[in-house]
Amino acid sequence: MAILCYARQSVERENSISCETQLEYCKTVIKPDERDEKILTIVDQGCSGGNIDRDGFQKLMKLVRRGKVSKVIVYKLDRISRSLNDFVNILQEFKAYKVEFVSSQESFDTSSPYGELIVKILMIFAEFERTSIINRITQAYAHRSEMGFYMGGRQPYGFELIPTVINNIKTKKLNPIPSETEQIRYIFEVYAWESVSLRRLLNLLVTENRKPLNGSDWTTSKLSALLKNPIYVKADSDVYEYYEKHGTQIITDLSMFTGEYGAQLYGHTKHKSDAPDWSDMKLVLLTHDGIVDSDIWIKCQKKLEKNKQVGNSISNRTSWLAGKIICEMCGHTMTTIKGKINKSGEIRRYFNCTGKSHKKSCPGTKVSIYAEDLENMVYDCISAKLSELKDTKRISANNSTAGVNELKLKLKAAEKAEKQLVDTMLSGGFNDDLLALANQKAAQLKRDKVALYDRIEELKSKDDETDVADNLARSWKIANYNRKKEVAMIMIHQIIISENGDAKMLWKI
Fold it and tell me: Which CATH architecture has domain 2-143?
């Protein structure tokens, strides 16, 4: 039989008691008649007392269960465990194997009922202290989150962490990585279109070899989590209103939703049968620049909420340029027909002049005009044209968007002021004179709201031309057969094909 001295130190600090010192204190309470007994020492360095999954402690318990230990001595009770349930179970096992337990600093042992009672009482306080620490950590986490601190966890794709100072506190903030954020914008823009489901989005990314730059692979679950994350959105008044309607507690003041910064959502979501309940969740703005425009981000959220997979049918029976291809020699349209199987086993479509095939009045072109080659050439020309249209309107559009958001913030503030005023009036908190002034104020707020509505509509009307170019450019990136045909109808008047196969584009815009 042996006396076992046990020491544990979770983190080494300047003011903490080292394991060596703990063991010295343990040896001071060994009784004179126990000096001849064998003394064993076991140490757990860098281990928490929150659980018993410690190498040294497990070794101690093995010796106890083998009947090799008569007494266990520790520096303090919390060295053995900080959990009351664990400690009570340990005491019961010690008692079953007739092992005494002694704390050198609390001056008692379990050889008496009184000592065992005191141990249990003290362990209640030890658990209370541990619970208090957890609560303080939880409250500190919530407070730092509300101040706009990035709180760690899995680093979101598209960002790196860089040092910063917030409210005179050194911390880290998210910083967008250009090469990755370009992918993220593409993902949001593609998914925003009605014809694109998560599965089709994944297939497009795989087909175009747009793999994550961190070496992993896309999955529908990863894409869904990315699309739901408000950390990517340029949070403005529309995003504020979106979360407000969902019952989310918005911590950051309304005036800060200027469309510059990303947001963070934290808390626990309650799920209903039709939609998520976010009433227990909180939204705060962080300090990093947002990546995705709010209108695209909100479109994606509404699609995700519906959780519907929208199919996309593609027809290859003819060309999306049908009706636009004109033979220069006879003026008739050219239509697609299927050729013979080539050496590679493919059947290639090509354009044929109807003046030659139907009217028998045109010799046709001297070279084959393959549909796929001409479609690819026209696709590139339209892409370039859309880029020109979009770029010429970009500066004015950005200025107008910022102006609309500022007006929306003012409108939201006016609506809140009006509601507060009406609530006060209904509660009877005004005398006659104050009530007259309140009515005047309410009337003024209504006039202000009308003026703000009119100004917002005025700015939106100026964006119409820009919106057309932007929508066409976004649509073109993931256009299916029908979408390509629609864009071609809007932009192209005719494509003139000469005798030697040269093509001349005649634009409508």
Answer: 3-Layer(aba) Sandwich (3.40)
